[in-house]
Amino acid sequence: MSHTEKKIFNADQTRSLEQMFDAKIARDEKIEPKDWMPEKYRKTHIRQISQHAHSEIVGMLPEANWISRAPSLRRKVALLAKVQDEAGHGLYLYSACETLGISREELYEQLHSGKAKYSSIFNYPTLTWADMGAIGWLVDGAAIINQVPLCSTSFGPYARAMVRVCKEESFHQRQGYEIMMTLCNGTQEQKDMAQDALNRWWWPALMMLGPTDEQSTHTEQSMIWKLKRKTNDELRQQFIDQTVPQADIIGLNIPDSDLKYNNETGHYDFGEIDWEEFWQVVKGHGMCNKERISARKNAWDNGEWVRDAALAYAEKQAESQDAKQAV
Amino acid sequence: MTNENLIHYIHGIADNSMILGQRISELCGHGPNLETDIALTNIALDLIGQTRSYYQYVAELSPKDITEDDVAFLRKEREYKNVLLVEQPNTDFAYVIVRQYFFDVFHYLLLKELEKSKNVNFQAIAKKSLKEVSYHKRFSGDWLKRLGDGTEESKQKTQQAVNDLWVFTDELFHMTKDDQVVADAGFGVDNSTLKSEYYTMVKSLLEECKLLIPEVEYFQKGGKKGIHSEHMGYILSDMQFMQRTYPDMKW
């Protein structure tokens, strides 16, 4: 049954549909757009997938900020391609979201009005070229840790989109690390630039893995629907354990005086995260929250006449086609 | 024909791709919709990719030990030989599309001739670029139709862009002394021979789009001789920022 057809089920029927639905997910089968699904499942997925799509397109902005100033032609081309990949991710995530019965216009409206969220990390400014390295290495690195489990999530279109997204993200992560490595092999000034970028992006990257498990509201249901496989704290630990040795290799210092390898647990212990800062940025008080949303809104509003023109032209073409066929 | 003639000739072609690529890349993340954003970024990528092939060739020809990046980032404004058209600002989407179409038709005709060059490097670059530029021309031409024959508002905006940018088209066909030497040697293209086909193609599409062909008394020129508009300094201050602030470093 298509989600647009509103079939009314009685309580018993709904219960039985729900049981079938739960069983299907438990068997690791995919839920497809035309399958019956509980309303809460649909809403949760619209929220999460659109939030993810919004993060991709808002995430284009801090990096696009350095395209015109990239330090070499090779870096310029790579950065353009990376930002373009993010637009592509946005495109297929919006498409996956649209299969749940919501239009792209509605999704944009939610972003522009502030109703929908996007990853808070993009509200931090990109101040130097090294930020292009730090974003690729840390932000894409954290994103991969968040996203790899989604390749086997229960909603088919989302899972399939994520397979492609993850492949590209892992390329971006390597590219970012390579920028950092080049800086660290360069002059003292370049190395300082890399260290400064790590200092500014490290904590926001840890925050990207989400609030602590105690504070996280959606985790339990998300686990059942396979929107989550591990808790935020587990993911954060994984990110830290993976990233610290990478920083060591290129001679950068993680800006955390409490960071220490714990022989007993086999993990790194780390310092207190400033959650006050996190919530302030989520609430809109980050350095660039306003700029990011107004950049998106301006692009959309200034593009309205363009989209209208394309539509009007397509209609004229269709009419003249019809007229030709009538003759 | 000296290497210097050849290098100047290449600047004349490659700087167009460089500066237009730079201009379009300013739009990345700000397009009217995602599909167009992606397509324009693609065009910027193609143009900068072509630029690299040309500049690498310049680096090879140069008596100095230089790289493609020295050619791209370390020249003075006067040494960039792009036409004025490509440095014009992204005023709105109509300007972006009209600038692109005016350039794409020229670029397409140029590459079709350059493919026949006696110089194997030019042949190879032209062959690869021609595929890309055929797509650019289709993209900008299709959008020109949509904008020209879309709504009343889009028509007005597009007519305005056509009127303002038309004055920059004639310069595309100007020949510098170096251009002439390289063309005479069978390596380069005599741009003046492309002019009549260019205007036939452009005018025919403008008519199809129901746009008026401007009548101008005087065409702007200067870029090919290194005399640019006021926009150029700002383009370069962005583009050269890293190289000027942190000289002699590897990135």
UniProtKB/TrEMBL annotation, chain A:
One GO MF term: phenylacetyl-CoA 1,2-epoxidase activity
SUPFAM superfamilies noted in UniProt: Ferritin-like
Domain of life, source organism: Bacteria
UniProt-listed Gene3D superfamilies: 1.20.1260.10
GO biological process, one term: phenylacetate catabolic process
Gene Ontology CC: cytosol
Record-linked InterPro entries: Aromatic_CoA_ox/epox, Ferritin-like, Ferritin-like_SF, PaaA, PaaA_PaaC
A Pfam family that the UniProt record links to this protein: PaaA_PaaC
Name the UniProt record assigns to this protein: Phenylacetate-CoA oxygenase subunit PaaA
Organism from which the protein derives: Psychroflexus gondwanensis ACAM 44
Upper taxonomic lineage: Bacteria, Pseudomonadati, Bacteroidota, Flavobacteriia, Flavobacteriales
UniProtKB/TrEMBL annotation, chain B:
Source organism of this protein record: Psychroflexus gondwanensis ACAM 44
SUPFAM superfamilies: Ferritin-like
Domain of life where this protein originates: Bacteria
InterPro entries: Aromatic_CoA_ox/epox, Ferritin-like, Ferritin-like_SF, PaaA_PaaC, PaaC
GO biological process, one term: phenylacetate catabolic process
Organism ancestry: Bacteria, Pseudomonadati, Bacteroidota, Flavobacteriia, Flavobacteriales
PANTHER family: 1,2-PHENYLACETYL-COA EPOXIDASE, SUBUNIT C (PTHR30458:SF0), PHENYLACETIC ACID DEGRADATION PROTEIN PAA (PTHR30458)
A Pfam family assignment: PaaA_PaaC
GO CC, one annotated term: cytosol
Name of protein: Phenylacetate-CoA oxygenase complex, PaaI subunit
Residues of the signal peptide: none
